[in-house]
Amino acid sequence: MEQLTPVIEYLMNHKLLLSALVIFTIVLIRQFALKQIRGDVAFVSEKQRKWMSLTKNGTFTLIVLTLFILWQSEISEFALSLTAIAVAIVVASKEIILCFTGSIQRASARSFRIGDWIEVGALCGEVIEHNMMATVIQEIDLHHGNYHFTGKTATLPNSMFFTYPVKNLNFMKRYVYHNFSITVRDFVNLYLIFPELIEQIEGHCEEFIEVARRYNSMIEKHAGVDLPGSDPHIHITTTSTGEQVVHIMLFCPTEQAVHLEQLIREDFMQIYHETFSQSAAAGAMSPSLPFM
């Protein structure tokens, strides 16, 4: 113990060296912990991401607290000397303060957690990490109705939570209301083909429709709102140029949405061709009436 006393006194008199040793030790421990949590798997699970985020945030907090305790006297003296320029510091650190308060707002409101799908402004993605300054997401292409990862990682400063609303899209990870439209140039009675089209859609949805109904009911109870339901919906609108637009909405598994859309488009085109090409052929064969 007597041999360690000079070393401790030396480190206390050289706080820069002690601070560097503390930071190096904590970072080394953090890297070891992160390596143990990740293991040798190729893809990190949601539980592993949560523990990795907790480890990073915990070690960052430990470093800040340790440095504050070591440099407390110097910080106090420095703070007193900054009284005259306190306002300038607040203005200069506005964004940093907003990031910290945005993190507090996120934690208090429980807007999202790691693994959730969120939309902030024009960005959509799955939350993979969040800390006191920023939130990191893996971008998802939701705006084009593809529901797949783009491979891009977006870092959102927490100050954005005061500027843009945070939309939690977590229920869309399993099932989604998938909307798409088909434009028809000719003005014909499309309602004639709806019964057969709905029958084809129900055939495609038969394997998961019961699970979809239960999941839809669960979302309604959780959100406390009346959702459109799990059955397919079809309606028609017209454009300013007289074209008809068929809008179709499905409640289906997210990973099957694009595939089901392609199958339904194929069914629509086939039914449309069979129905109206035969009608056109029959009209062409009927004798024309004389001009009166």
UniProtKB/TrEMBL annotation:
Keywords: Membrane, Transmembrane, Transmembrane helix. GO terms for cellular component: membrane. The chain crosses the membrane at residues 16-33, 54-72, 78-100. Its main location: membrane. Residues 100-170 form the Mechanosensitive ion channel MscS domain. The keyword Cell cycle does not apply. It is found in: Membrane. The keyword tRNA processing does not apply. GO terms for molecular function: mechanosensitive monoatomic ion channel activity. PANTHER family: MECHANOSENSITIVE ION CHANNEL PROTEIN, YNAI-RELATED MECHANOSENSITIVE ION CHANNEL. This is Mechanosensitive ion channel protein MscS.
